[in-house]
Design brief:
269 residues, binds magnesium ion, binds adenosine-5'-triphosphate, homohexamer, Rossmann fold
Chain lengths: 269, 269, 269, 269, 269, 269
């Protein structure tokens, strides 16, 4: 079961799991049907890769708005797979490198993985790996081409591999032809009101009666933003109340919560 | 005969055949008239090159949607030709190289081939060799120019050569003038319902009664995607059923098949 | 209280405070509700960073017209935080450097900050760090990508960080996706008539009766421009009156003030 | 007379004639009035260069669709001129070179020619020398500028030179100003029905009664394509008939000819 | 008084004044109210910089059509300031340098000036420093960014600086954001009829009765062009009369003057 | 008188005159009023430079269609000036050089000229110096900036200089701001019917009665093209008649002349 899996996070192997763990800073909670469905399907792919003879390479893209939980989901799949080789490729470890150094690092991870019977590679935030900005648009074609080829190149005989990509710029990847290069794509959504309520209940920082109002005020907010919002509101309007709230002694004032929500949301419009 | 040829795959010479074999991971099956027709015409070109005095260079382009079977077809022609020199030029072996190194490698293969009385060169996925992306569009003009010249340059006296190109971006090649540089172009299509049925029957993973429904649900799917789809469906909705299905003990549930098909197709629209 | 905080500026640590002090050449005065509100909210973020366990990285953007007081505000927050590591990253210290050297310097500041339990980094005038000009537009994508990653990358376990950005080109940052990368954004406005009056009163260079007229003539002028205007007007129409005015012996002639205001404003239209 | 000239191809001097000969792989046959007219006019220019005092440099451009016979025509003029220096500059011998190396090679040929009293330089496929592709368009401005200057620069006193250019992208050359740099331009056309009939008669591979029908089916086909088409058709629908047909024992089946023609032509539309 | 100031040009210090003097080849004459007004305001800024404590950096832009007298005006202000450090930064001394060398030279001048208690830097013809051309437009962003930063960076404590920029492409500077970076901008106009008459009277090369007609024929001509026009006309229609005219023995023929004026003006339309 | 001047071409100094002479391969003949007028005005500028004190630098642009006689005119002015330093800067001597080498060469010529009391520099075919092509358009901004500065930079005290530019792309120079940088611009036209008749009479290759018809057939042809046309026609339709015609024994057949004219002109439309 999904939630069960979310809890029993066992390290697959040494250091690398640490990296994966760091991807789900706020843990994994039940946040609605869609997230659960995607997790289950992805675990089916994990199994397919384990037993397949005809498809040594399976690729899967998780796309959705910023903060919707894609990276945490991919990391969880990696951890739960129990595969001997699970690695995340992220722009964070390649800051300031030239395009060709980044390419070399990416290729290196694939070459390493080819040596393992079963492997998972997470291409995290593909638009960032590609150095994408909407103005222009600009991006690294060298890295694009590298990914396009790696997503189709078969591992050596007898080795099977799952590649999981994440992105919040699916339209851009579509126009590069990178979406088509994935076997299957799942959309990871923001939270609807019911999902948000579940998450807020788990956090236990609102008075019982306020939870519905709070959840209603959040229209389609992504998970990660919700965690930040709650923590900001927990400081209270004059500061200092965070500890009392997290220890359960106090609750977040709904009015202050609305204020902070306004700061975060209104600017954009 | 086409199917006969498909079966009796004999290595033309040592190592290289291995590369070609790897291009048809799912073997070669009868998948309709159009594929058969193209194969036959291409084999006529092989013969023309063998006997020609006036045209030492014949060039042929296979274009069609991603996964329609172009590379497997080209590899099969190469293998079946029994020519002493058959080589595939693919972006997979040139990841991360500079444009000019790629150029040099491509030219090298042609120079090597010129030493053989009869040779076949497969330019696989030409848009990838050209580092093409639709945004811009961007591509390597250095490599474009190299191909444009190589596709017209005659081998030395007494040497004959067949060049087979493949692409799923025929519109792009058209606007580069690369299509015009080929003597002849064939369109490799996706599968219509009848073709798909033939392939599914060969795979023998559906109950007799379900085959027509399954084939009907696949509108114009390319061969390669069909193989991936079947394997995904074969895991069953809770996993673990692949072995039973491939050994013939169980059949794929049509409902689960529709589900998986939905995952793969719906996102795009 | 805001104004109190503005006055009791105590150095957090050695040399660096000097840099921050230099950012508020004209001191910090009360210039209206909005400025006060932003200051208070930012100080709540400072506190959140001090106590947070779930959000080791909080980021906040101050955007508003040129001269509205963003840099002085950010510097004041840095000074008032009493954090052991407070650093301003500004284009002024990186003139003429290559994009990659600038990148390296920026990354260096972050790496240094990661060693401190609590740190504040001010990214001053982000559009200038990005070498932005509207024509094109042109900008450094290398630096953009670096900021996009740094604004999301978590400090090591146990270290907490606040990043404050300033910009007068919020539309540009929006289209780069840099705005979305900040947890929260505040708009720092120009002065309305009441705010301007407050500032003029504090300066004490106009006759009592002239202050309202002077304040009325300034439509939505930014703070910094107002200081420059007053100093230009204080020279008098034939020069030499500055000392008398600042020592309180004379007042600025309203007519001359209008003249100078005309020079500064009219050209633009 | 034109045809006579076509036959009595005598080498002007050693190795280089070989290169020129290789440009007319299918020999030179009578293929209509326009081709003949251009040849005669070009031979008048050859004579003018031989006797001129006032125009040490004459330049002539042959433009027309791909395969219409431009290169073979230029080579024939070079061979028939009996000039001591005749050289073809072609992209084929400069694959993969940098723009500036290509430039240097081109300039070198001109410098060599300047040493000869009478010289002909053929700039073959100028768009290819310029690395032109329609997308963008892209091309080498370094080489463009070099040609623009070389086409106007006078040889040293006492030396006379004829430059013949060929291109199938006259519109592009026009917009570069390269057309204007030539003294005169001739359009080399595709074959009309009467011209095609003449060529087919010469080849003697159709039954008497079929020739008109075959010629009629070819609408404005360029010469070179016609030769390829005939050779493809000569293999027969099941292969193996080429020898019988070229030795005159059999004739090409009109139906098979139509089929092959369809393969070659239909794709484009 | 303005004109008085114009006459008593005393060197501020050694060699550099020579450079400044060379900027007013035709001396400084009274050419109307606007020029006089700008000069006076600029001299007030000089005084402000001398006494200011709150604004160590004052910046002023002179913009206007080509030849209207901007450079001569800026040079005159520099000379009349009697500041110990006065330097003109001009593209003339940086021909052919790379962008980064130019940058370095510009920065060097500022660094030198920072050592002086009082300094003036003239950024002459800013669009030329920026390597601007309208086609594209193209310009050096490296130098743009350098100027944008230098125009805001404060000199060290206790040092005051005035920066005077000149440009005839104010629209371009506006769109770069460089105009906004200046504290104040003045428009230096062409000559109206009355101004032109004053200048012609000073030159004393027309008959008394012709001066009005001549001045009328010059619609909004810039100063520098007027000097060139008069000198061309002074040669007379057959040459040789210049000496007689400048020595006052002859006057310029009005008809010949009209002719020459036509040559200079008509072409543009 | 103009024609007289045209004849008495005396070398100003050694080798360089040779270069200038080579610019008027077909000599200088009377070809109408406009050419004469421009020559006279330009000679007035030569005189102005000789005697001027106030304008050490005079600049003049000759613009007009390709082949209209601009270079020959500029060379003639240079030769007739008798100035100690006369130099032509042309793309012909800088083929294949990098932009910065070209820049250096151009600057070198100016630096050399600054050493001479009186000098003339001819910037021939400025669009070619700038590596201009209409597509894009593309051009060297480095060289553009260099010319823009050199056309305004004053020679050292006591040295006077005349710069003559030529171009057939005046619209392009206009948009670069290079036209405005010249003191005066003259348009060098093609030949009208009367002018063409004069030139043909001088050549004496037509029968008396044919001259008018021939001149009429040439609509606005540039001089240089006319010379080429006549020489082509002089070969006769079967070749070999050139000698007879130039020696006056035969005349050009009007019909053949029309034919050749058709070849040259019709293609363009
Ligand atoms: N069921 C869940 N699925 C995913 N994330 C969860 C879940 N429950 C809690 N979380 C928390 O929500 C946060 C999701 O953030 P995450 O970084 O995965 O989002 P993201 O979509 O990758 O964002 P971005 O687009 O910025 O990369 C994590 O902190 C994670 O611990
Ligand atoms: N008759 C056939 N023709 C082609 N391929 C076949 C045939 N029968 C089975 N196959 C299998 O179908 C698959 C076709 O994939 P292939 O890589 O050739 O497609 P493609 O068109 O080259 O795809 P892409 O556009 O992604 O390069 C191969 O795995 C091949 O083994
Ligand atoms: N309450 C206040 N808030 C901000 N600045 C103040 C305040 N009171 C006085 N000031 C003064 O106003 C000036 C504000 O200028 P500052 O450089 O901060 O503006 P800015 O918005 O950063 O401008 P720019 O867009 O040019 O970077 C400083 O000189 C500061 O000393
Ligand atoms: N009269 C003729 N003129 C030209 N070519 C002829 C003639 N008769 C036969 N040929 C043959 O026709 C072919 C013409 O091809 P050629 O390469 O010259 O065409 P092209 O116009 O240069 O083509 P491309 O545009 O591809 O460069 C040659 O093989 C040549 O031998
Ligand atoms: N009062 C005056 N103000 C300015 N220039 C004057 C004045 N009186 C005479 N002049 C002369 O007019 C000329 C003005 O030319 P200047 O080079 O200053 O113009 P500019 O606007 O800088 O031109 P450009 O746009 O080409 O740089 C100088 O030769 C100067 O000596
Ligand atoms: N009066 C004349 N003026 C100019 N050229 C003349 C005259 N009389 C004869 N000619 C001849 O006409 C030709 C003019 O060619 P020129 O190269 O000067 O033209 P151009 O305008 O510079 O051409 P392009 O635009 O190609 O550079 C020369 O050969 C010159 O000898
Ligand atoms: Mg993520
Ligand atoms: Mg393929
Ligand atoms: Mg600021
Ligand atoms: Mg050719
Ligand atoms: Mg100036
Ligand atoms: Mg010329």
């Amino acid at each position: 079961d999904f939630l069960y899996a979310l809890q029993e996070i066992v390290p697959a192997f040494g250091a690398s799991t640490d990296d994966l763990e760091r991807c789900r800073l706020n843990g994994m909670v039940d946040c609605g049907e869609r997230h659960k469905h995607i997790y289950q399907r992805a675990m089916l792919l994990v199994e397919q890769v384990k037993v397949s003879k005809g498809s040594p390479l399976v690729t899967c893209l998780l796309e959705g708005p910023s903060g919707s939980g894609k990276t945490a989901m991919a990391a969880t799949i990696g951890i739960d797979s129990d595969f001997p080789y699970v690695k995340i490729i992220s722009a964070e470890t390649m800051i300031g490198l030239s395009e060709s150094s980044k390419c070399a690092q990416i290729v290196k991870v694939f070459e390493d993985a080819y040596k393992s019977q079963l492997s998972i590679i997470i291409l995290d935030d593909i638009e960032r790996l590609l150095e994408y900005v909407a103005i222009g648009p600009r991006f690294s074609n060298l890295i694009s081409q590298t990914l396009l080829v790696l997503l189709k190149r078969l591992p050596p005989k007898g080795k099977n591999m799952l590649v999981i990509g994440t992105t919040s710029e699916v339209g851009f990847l579509e126009s590069l032809g990178i979406c088509d290069a994935f076997s299957v794509t799942y959309h990871v959504p923001t939270l609807d009101q019911a999902d948000a309520k579940k998450v807020l209940q788990g956090l236990n920082v609102f008075a019982e009666d306020d939870i519905d109002l709070a959840a209603e005020a959040l229209h389609d907010m992504p998970l990660k933003k919700l965690y930040m919002l709650v923590e900001m509101a927990a400081q209270g309007s004059t500061g200092g109340s965070a500890e009392a709230i997290y220890s359960g002694k106090e609750k977040i004032s709904l009015n202050h919560f609305y204020d902070i929500l306004g700061d975060i949301v209104s600017i954009r419009h």
